[in-house]
Structure formats: structure tokens, C-alpha cells
Amino acid sequence: MSHAVKRYSSYGPYGDGPGRNDDDDDEDVEGDDGGNGGGEEDRLGPKLKYTPAPGFLYFWYKKHLIVINRKLDLSYYTGDIPDETMVLTTIGRSPTLLRELLSEARREYLLAQSKKTMVYTISPTPFAQKTWDQGRHRPSREISTVILPTESKGHLLRDVKEYLNPVTARWYAQRGLPYRRGYLFYGPPGTGKTSLSLALAGELKVPLYILSLSTGSLTDETLTMLFVGLPRKCIVLLEDIDCAGVQRNNNRHMDDESDQESSEEEEEEEEEGQSDNEPRSDGVKAKSPKPSKEKKRPSKSDANPSSSGQQHRPPRMSVSFSGLLNAIDGVASHEGRILIMTTNHRERLDPALIRPGRVDMQIEFGYAGRNTLGEIFRELYSRVDGMDSATIEEEEEVFGGEEESLLSSMEKTSTARSELDRQAQYTATIADLAEKFADMIPVDKFTPAEVQGFLMSYKRAPKRAIRKIPEWLNSKPSAAGEKGSRRAKNKHSKKRSPKIIKSEEAPEPTRQPDVVTSQSIAFQGVVHNSAGGFVVNDLQVDMEMVTRAIQQIIKENVGISHSASPELNIVGLRRRTNLAEDTEKGAGVHENKPKKEVNGILKGEVTTVERV
Ligand SMILES: Nc1ncnc2c1ncn2[C@@H]1O[C@H](COP(=O)(O)OP(=O)(O)OP(=O)(O)O)[C@@H](O)[C@H]1O
Q1: What PROSITE patterns has UniProt attached to this entry (predicted)?
Q2: Residue 246 DSSP label
Q3: pTM score > 0.80 for this model?
Q4: DSSP assignment, residue 540?
Q5: Which of 110, 150, 178, 339 lies at 20 to 30 Å from 54 by C-alpha?
């Protein structure tokens, strides 16, 4: 009895690629991690992985001999699918044994993959014709780790699950309605739009296709082709929709100017009308977290010189408005897909783009309110490795060597306590600390990414993080001297031009007189591995290392002096697969592209002081 199994190579151009329906996912076993759970390394580097060689192999399964003939088709080299066939043979007349084997393999594979999300981006081809890349398995992000007001998250989850329910699909079909659902995530950079999309894909177990309109390298045709290439059920994350030719043309220029002009007035308004400690509602569609703040902070679409006031350059508009609408809901658009569009500037979007039918729900992402601050803290420290079932020694380690022994009292009585008690006490302690943390950080001042970035410097020392808050706040021009002193600072700053400040913050004794420009810019920094020696391999990188890397990049590429003590304020970090493309196009603010070997691209926000 023989069974043939077709396997799609992850190395071939079709890999786990688009156009396959979801069931296809059952079959690819060797993704980027070899199906082994990924990331297996020893101190020398990645471990070797073994897979059966082409040809005949045999093994025993439930006391029966199974012979496998693994054949690579010629098409493997030409790129046609399928590119591999496996024939399983055993002795006997019943196919049951082979079916059992296959279903066991399927189960194992799906179990292993259930904690992963398949993420596709555009492949970095030198040609205008873009295609989806082969996709990468990424560990799924639990939706609980994206901190949002409960009602927003709950509402979104309910809506999207309802949409994916087969009954809903039939409901759409019976009424002849296009079976599609669209969401708009809007808010400042670093507030969790991308993270929530990734988490949602993991939760719903559908692949995520990420497409950014800010790359400027897409045309209407390629966009349509990319949408045609989507599978039946997936999430498409269309980022930065305000960056293409989709904004209301006549408003763009005005917006930029009015941003600058009104910034002083906005500060004034804030000062008069807003109590610094007043908690924000944190709600879905809650009133915008002070639109003025959104304007003050940079966004990706501001990440060109025009937005820093140096020159006004029209945005790249390679994808036209009608091209975008066609891709979203033209004939090429697949039934069953979920579209998530993100923007930092909802106000710049044409209402037609976000009308009901194209966008069925809008979710606002804002600066961290009190609840969010506490949640971020709890989320980060309640999951410290080994804490749940930890020994007391591990718990001590969590709080760092120099920490006063938070759990020393626990240690003394630990023998008498159950594991459960200790866990409960740990949770309660973290909850107390979270409250304290939330009390100490000004609300609606920082993005969750900033707060998380700060805490990540104290991954295993929550108490130390709390002790360091004043220092951190002082280092933040935007938050320095909250409350009374912030008021004074604002008053002081009004005496001068909003863009020019005295150089007290960054004295340069050797250069007199110094006039410095305070700038806050969004940027994408290229991390290279030669001179600087900075390598970013994945999302989970040490934030301190990233900070140093960014400093290096700025110094080399933007020419900002280190002695000016640039304040780095990392709001986002992402590794892109289309590095070559981004580098060529000149990611972010860099006109000076680094010529060295490129390993990754950092997205960030930098507030710094620059000499002019
Ligand atoms: N609400 C949040 N909850 C948890 N983590 C967050 C949240 N917001 C941001 N972060 C963290 O900050 C980093 C950047 O977030 P993310 O890329 O999702 O922001 P974004 O809103 O998509 O930014 P952009 O508009 O620049 O794409 C991520 O590593 C994420 O873990």
C-alpha cells in the first residue's frame, strides 16, 4: 500500500506562498525554522538540522515497515509546483496505517505551528513587479500582550470572530454582499497598531500579509497583483495609508504648516485646560488623545525633511487613490479577507477610503493612559521566566542582585508556603508596583512603545525601574518637570521661537556662540554590521544596544553631534525583509545612505538637539 504526499519546498519560489488556500498550510514542514520550533542555537550559532535525503528511506511505525521515496521533481529548479513528492509504502492491503501516520504527522505539525503566525511581506526584487515573499513563521504574539482598553480589544475580537464564522459567510452570500471586512487602526507611531495586527493573526490562526504604502515603490498594477495573490482567508495589513497618493491633496500642505503654527497655541491650551494627572478614558473611539499631541509628535509620513520644516516636498504618490480603492474592493479583491489599514494621520484620509463598507470599524490608539501604564508594567513583569513556578532563588534573581530583597520575607517562610501562595504574593507585589509605576508616569505623555522601551532596560528588576523613573523623566524634554515645573518650562519656551532654543541643554564650550535647533524626527535607521558593529537580528533585541546603534547611525548619517546629547526615544522597532529596497530608496530621513553591509532597519523616533 502506498500513499503519495506532495510537499511544497520552502526554498522554491512558491514555498508557503500566496494563492494557496489555507489547507495548504498543513503540508509545508520546513519553514525557516525547519519545523523544529526555530531559534535553536548553541553558543556557536544555529544548530544543524537534518532532513531525509532524496531517495529511499525506511522506518518502523507501529511495528510496520514504512518505506519513503522522496523525489525532488525537476520543477523544483524551474519553480513550478509541486516540487517534491514523497511516496510512503508499507506491506499490507489496508490504507489505515498510512492514514494514521499522515494524520499524526499533520497533528504534530499543526500543533507546532499553532503558536506561530505566518507573516508575508513583499519580496525584495530588483524588478518593478513585486510579489509576496515566501513568508516566515513568527512566534504568535498573545493578544493579551497588546495593551489596549479592554472594550476596544474585546469589541474588535468579537467583531472579527463573528465575521469569520461560517454562518456569517453564508449570511453575506445569501444577500449577495461582498464578504470582506475592513478596519482602520489610527494613532501615533509606537502605540501598538502593528502589534495588534500580528496578535490578531495569531489569535485567528490566519496568515498576515504586510504591505506598506510608505515605501513609495508600489504602483497601482503591483498593488492589484499583490491583492490578487492573497489567499482566501488572511489578514492584510496595509500600513501608512496616508503616505501614498491617498490623502486629500489640498490639505496636506496646509496641515503641515498649521501643525507648526498652532503648536504654540496648543501648548497654551493644554496648559490652561488640562490637568496633568487627569486620567484619560482610554476608550475605543474615545475622544482622540488630544489631537494636538498627535501633531506634535512625528509620524512616519513626517519622516522626510519636509515635515521638519526644512523644505516642503510633495509626498511620493506611486499608488493612486483609485488604484488603492480598486485593490481594496475591486473585482480582484478576495472574498474572506480581513483588511487592516493603519495611519498616523486619520484626518488626512479621504472620507471615501474609510467609508463604511471599506472600513467597518475604526480603532484609535493613543498615548498611554493610567490603566495602560499599569498594564504594561504588569504584563512585562508578570511573565518573567520561571516566576510562576519558580524557586525562591529564581525570584530573587528576578529582582536583581542589588535589589532590596523584595521577597526575602517570602524566602524565610517559603518552606511553609505552597507554591500557589508564593505565586499569589508575587502577583500581588507586581500589582502594587504597577500602581506605583502608573502613579509616577505622567498620563497621555508617552507611547506604550516608549514606556516599554524604558522598562526593558530593567527586565528583571521592577523595583529598580521604579526608582529610575525620575531620572528617565528628567531625560525626556517632553516630560521634564511635569506639573508645576512643566508649566514653567512651557512659559519659558514661549519667550523664544518654537524652533530655536538656547543651548543650555547641550552646552558646546568650544563653539561660540551656539544656536541649536531642537528637533523631533521620526526616522528609520539602517543598522549595519561593519564599522559600528551593531547587528539587529530580530525584534527581541536589547534596547540599550539598539539605542547605541541609533546613536551611531545618527552620528554617521545625519551628522548630529554626540556632544549634543541626543535623546533617543525609541518608539518602534521592526526588521524588514525588503532591506535592499528600503536602503536604495533611502529609508526615513537619511539622504546619506550607508554604503556598508545592511542587516536591518530600525524604525524610531529621535528627539535631539542639532547645531545649525
Ligand atoms: N499598546 C501596546 N501594547 C503593548 N506593546 C506596545 C503597544 N504599543 C506599542 N507597543 C510596543 O512598541 C513597539 C512598537 O509598536 P507597534 O509597531 O505595534 O506600533 P505602531 O503603532 O504600529 O507604530 P507605527 O505607526 O510606527 O507602525 C512594539 O514592540 C510593541 O511591543
Answers
A1: AAA
A2: T
A3: no
A4: -
A5: 110
Ligand 1: residue whose CA is nearest its atom 5: 146
Q: Which mutation among 195, 239, 380 tests ligand 1's pocket best, with the greatest number of atoms within 8 A of CB? A: 195
**Residue 116 DSSP symbol:** E
Task: Tell me which range, 45-49, 125-129, 369-373, 493-497, is most confidently predicted by mean pLDDT.
Answer: 369-373
Q: Are 240 and 345 in contact (CB under 8 A)?
A: no
**Among the atoms of ligand 1, which is closest to the Cα of residue 190?**
19
Distance of CA 259 to the CA centre of its chain: 27
Relative to the CA of 342, which ligand 1 atom is closest? 25
Name the percent of the chain lying above pLDDT 90. Answer: 20
Q: Rounded to 5 degrees, what angle do the CA atoms 588, 589, 593 make?
A: 85
The number of beta carbons lying within 10 Å of the beta carbon of residue 364 is 21
Residue-wise pLDDT for 307-318, tens only, equals 333 344 444 447
Ligand 1 neighbour 448 (Cβ under 6 A): yes
The SS3 assignment for 547 reads helix
Which residues, including other chains, have CB under 8 Å from residue 495's CB and lie 6 or more apart? none
| 429 CB within 6 A, ligand 1 | no
Per-residue three-class SS string for 335-396: CCCEEEEEECCHHHECCCCCCCCCCCEEEECCCCCHHHHHHHHHHHHCCCCCCCCCCHHHHH
Q: For residue 191, how far is its CA from the centre of ligand 1 (angstroms)? A: 5
Which ipTM value was assigned to this complex? Answer: 0.98
What CA–CA distance (Å, rounded) separates 141 from 551?
A: 29
Does residue 505 carry a pLDDT above 50? no
Question: Which whole number is the average pLDDT over 164-187?
Answer: 89
**Ligand 1 proximity of 442 Cβ (cutoff 6 Å):** no
pLDDT of residue 91: 92
Q: How far is the CA of 188 from the centre of ligand 1 (A)?
A: 10
Write out pLDDT tens, residues 191-247: 999 999 999 999 998 999 998 887 767 788 888 888 888 888 899 999 988 875 544
Ligand 1: centre distance to CA 247 (Å): 23
Tell me how far apart the alpha carbons of residues 552 and 501 are, in angstroms, rounded to a whole number: 25
Q: Dihedral of CA 41/44/46/48: which sign?
A: negative
**366 Cβ below 6 A of ligand 1:** no
- Grade residue 85 by pLDDT with cuts at 50, 70 and 90: confident
